[in-house]
């Protein structure tokens, strides 16, 4: 999936969680930052992604040594992202959110034809039928965006 689809899907889930007060806290800038980084970080290993462009030269180094949709698209790295978030914030709720939004990114990529090496380092790949950047993804993007607009008006 494209970065924009990951972002809008995770935003939709984020708004739903805020509306339902699932985690027992309301919006703050730290949560927004965690959401944003966890949503887009898995694509740091793909040249041209939004995250890759914002993290040069680290991403340039990664492109040489890491295959896309393997290490950074694994359950192991999702848990590591949550652990790093906890170590920085000393807050388990923030760590849970980071892991959750990271996993949502992986879930969407599992639906694509390229698939994901979810169980890295094992060479098991989970694949779907959606073409990245294709018509089906565009339809999903439009639907998620519409839901985000509706949720925003409901929450005002």
Structure commentary:
It is a single chain. The chain is mostly helical and 156 residues long. It has one domain. The chain has helices spanning 3-20, 29-40, 50-54, 58-65, 75-89, 92-110, 135-155. Helix 1 (3-20) runs antiparallel to helix 2 (29-40). The radius of gyration is 16 Å and the shape is globular. It starts with a helix and ends with a helix.
Low-confidence stretches: none
Summarize model confidence as the mean pLDDT: 89
Q: How big is the Rg?
A: 16 Å
Share in helix:
55-70%
Taken together, the total number of domains comes to: 1
The outline comes out as globular
Report the end-to-end length measured between terminal Cα atoms.
30 Å
SS elements, strand count: 0
Give the H and E element order.
Answer: HHHHHHH
| Percentage of residues in strands | under 5%
Number of helices: 7
The secondary structure category is: mainly alpha
Major beta sheet, specifics?
A: none
Structure summary:
The chain is an all-alpha fold and 156 residues long.
């Amino acid at each position: 999936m494209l970065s924009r689809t990951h972002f809008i899907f995770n935003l939709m889930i984020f708004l739903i969680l805020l509306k339902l007060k699932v985690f027992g806290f309301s919006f703050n800038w730290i949560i927004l930052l965690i959401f944003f980084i966890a949503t887009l970080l898995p694509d740091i290993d793909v040249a041209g992604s939004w995250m890759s462009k914002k993290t040069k030269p680290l991403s340039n180094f990664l492109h040489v040594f890491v295959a896309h949709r393997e290490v950074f698209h694994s359950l192991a790295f999702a848990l590591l992202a949550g652990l790093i978030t906890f170590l920085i914030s000393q807050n388990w709720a923030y760590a849970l959110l980071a892991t959750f939004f990271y996993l949502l990114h992986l879930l969407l990529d599992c639906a694509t034809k390229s698939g994901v090496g979810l169980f890295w380092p094992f060479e098991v790949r989970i694949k779907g039928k959606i073409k990245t950047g294709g018509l089906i993804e565009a339809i999903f993007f439009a639907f998620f965006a519409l839901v985000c607009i509706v949720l925003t008006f409901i929450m005002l």
